[in-house]
Amino acid sequence: MIRIFTDSASDLPKCTLEKYGITVLPLFICLGDDSYKDGIEITPREIYRWASENKTTPKTAAISLDETINAMQKVIDDGDEMIIFSLPASMSSTNNVMHLAAEEIEGEDKISIIDSENLSAGIGLLAIEASVMAKNGMTRKEIVKKINEMLPKIRTTAVADTLLYLHRGGRCSSIATLAGGILKIHPKLEVVDSVLGPTKKYRGSMPAVVNNYLNDLKENLLNADPSRIVIAHSGTTAEILTTMEEYVRGLNYFKEIILTRVGGIISSHLGPGTVGIFYKEK
Predict the structure, then answer these.
(1) Which one of 10, 126, 134, 206 has the largest count of C-beta atoms within 10 Å of its C-beta?
(2) What are the start-end ranges of the H helices in 55-194?
(3) Residue-wise DSSP of 59-79
(4) What is the pLDDT of residues 140-188, one digit of tens each?
């Protein structure tokens, strides 16, 4: 049996994790001197409250080496194999921790570690694809080969409601933050070469921005792999969520639409109000 694991930055909802048999290993959210397991010991709402009170943003840290070793060892002891997905090695030491854990238990011949080259549900989509392949009887090596070919096809896009968290995290200048507040500028963010960065600027209220963002995506969505799409947010209004869901459903194109609220990692770096669409190109 091939078991699929991912770090908690994959941001899939519990129902989807259960449906596809995906196991999550938590990263850590660091609030000052205190660390909490992402998705287990802290919520995005608590993260935002702490950030507001302390006028700074949380730090994030890699998964635990000991917990990773224990998870891998159990898979090996059960006579199974593992495919595990991580945040990009260029952005987190989580991928390195996974390799160290596999080496520690001498399990490299049973464990495949994949650098997702992506973020959030972009990682989650890869994990789902691997799970489907495993259930269809493909070997671990066959799955890894297919996933590596798929990496450039995963599309991660988002619109940030606030520039404050990007600024505090060193990803946006003070001038841009000030301008964003005054002019109501909302950057469109995309993952390119394993890096999340701005590719367009929208101006106006967030509901209007989301409509423009969705319309800009329409052609790409209608030429995407129709198997599934993910709509994600870091805490937004019911109005905006309804707009996004109705828009995607109205395309009558995707077989599976996954709705998710992102966890502590993305919330810590992008702040509240961010919304995103994740899909795979054909």
Answers:
(1) 10
(2) 65-77, 94-104, 121-135, 140-150, 164-168, 174-183
(3) EEEPPPHHHHHHHHHHHHHTT
(4) 999 999 999 999 999 999 999 987 777 676 655 544 554 555 567 898 9
| Distance set, CA 177 to CA 2, 48, 162, 207 (Å) | 46, 18, 8, 20
156 phi/psi in degrees, rounded to 5 = -115, 120
Contact predicate 121/11, CB 8 Å: yes
Query: For residue 38, what is the DSSP state?
Result: B
* pLDDT tens by residue, 100-122: 999 999 999 999 999 999 999 99
CB atoms within 10 A of CB 252: 8
Distances (CA, A) of 208 to 152, 203, 205, 271, 272: 30, 9, 5, 19, 17
Q: 227: buried, middle or exposed (CB in 10 Å: 19+, 13-18, 0-12)?
A: middle
Measured in residues, the chain has a length of 282
Rounded Cα gap, residues 127 and 124, in angstroms: 5
Taking alpha carbons only, the member of 11, 58, 6 closest to residue 231 is 11
d(CA 4, CA 146): 15
Place of tokens 């908690």: 8
Contact (Cβ atoms closer than 8 angstroms) between residue 3 and residue 75: yes
C-beta separation of 217 from 245 below 8 A: no
SS3 273: coil
What is the bridge-based pairing of β-strands 34-37 and 81-86? unpaired
